[in-house]
Design brief:
By secondary structure, the chain is α/β, with parallel strands linked by helices. 45% of the residues lie in helices and 15% in strands. It is built from ten helices and nine strands. The longest helix has 16 residues, at 29-44.
């Protein structure tokens, strides 16, 4: 049986690969379960501090939901299971995930990119939400997240026309962080992951949690969450180790995970 999602980890970085290239890495029920299991493994892995999510081949990062599987009755398992669409878009992660977009990311595939924390794309990648062309809409986070990430007018144009944008346009809008040739994509994503891994894991997690709540909580609640995070950070050994390492001109040795 084909391994639909591959999980590999080394040097504090996990790589999760959607591996159904003959179907443009489209999500069926089995693949959603496999991706959810990979996220469970990543969250439980104390040594893995950052994950890179990518697709197999160069034809697509992910073409979204497998419409044949949907028509066959797999929709609830693909969309409504733990973690939301693909077991990913609403998974309660505590550690950063970088999308390494190796080809077109369309419909649910683009929603998976939006669900990641950072994104690096190959220069031939495309991004779009064609659901309205099929009588649907981007209900797995696309409609809600895209206007928070890019200008409202650009978000509405993508969502209402179903048109795609290329990688350079996506970068200019702020949808992704950088664009590189396909051959450089794995190294570029891994370099970004290593730069995050060099920092205090507890500080990274607290920062990530606060950023995710910026648009969903009123300022008073955000302030309380911010103060709580600061109390936890200030009490940690890492908060003392960081300044010591800086003063002694040496790399910090982080303790908290």
């Amino acid at each position: 049986m084909q391994q639909l999602v591959r999980y590999e980890a080394s040097e504090q970085v996990a790589t999760i690969t959607l591996d159904r290239p003959e179907q443009r890495n489209a999500i069926d029920a089995a693949m959603a379960a496999a991706l959810r299991a990979a996220l469970d493994r990543f969250e439980a892995d104390r040594e893995a501090l950052v994950a890179i999510l990518t697709g197999s081949g160069s034809r697509a990062f992910c073409a979204g939901m497998d419409l044949k599987a949907f028509a066959a009755g797999e929709g609830p398992a693909i969309i409504e299971g733990r973690g939301g669409f693909a077991g990913f878009t609403h998974y309660p992660r505590t550690k950063p995930v970088i999308a390494a977009v190796n080809g077109p990311a369309l419909a649910g595939g683009c929603e998976i990119v939006l669900s990641c924390d950072l994104a690096v794309a190959a220069d031939h990648a495309l991004f779009g939400f064609p659901e309205v062309k099929r009588g649907l809409f981007a209900a797995s986070g696309g409609v809600l997240r895209l206007p928070r990430l890019i200008p409202r007018g650009a978000a509405l144009e993508m969502l209402l026309t179903g048109d795609v944008v290329d990688a350079r346009t996506a970068q200019g809008l702020g949808l992704i962080n950088s664009v590189v040739p396909l051959a450089q994509l794995p190294g570029s994503a891994r370099d970004l992951a290593r730069r995050i891994c060099a920092n205090a894991p507890l500080a990274v997690r607290e920062t990530l949690a606060l950023v995710r709540e910026v648009f969903s909580l009123p300022e008073e609640q955000l302030g309380a969450r911010n103060n709580g995070a600061w109390t936890r950070i200030a009490a940690s050994e890492d908060a003392r180790e960081g300044p010591r390492a800086f003063a002694e001109k040496r790399p910090a040795i982080w303790k908290a995970r």
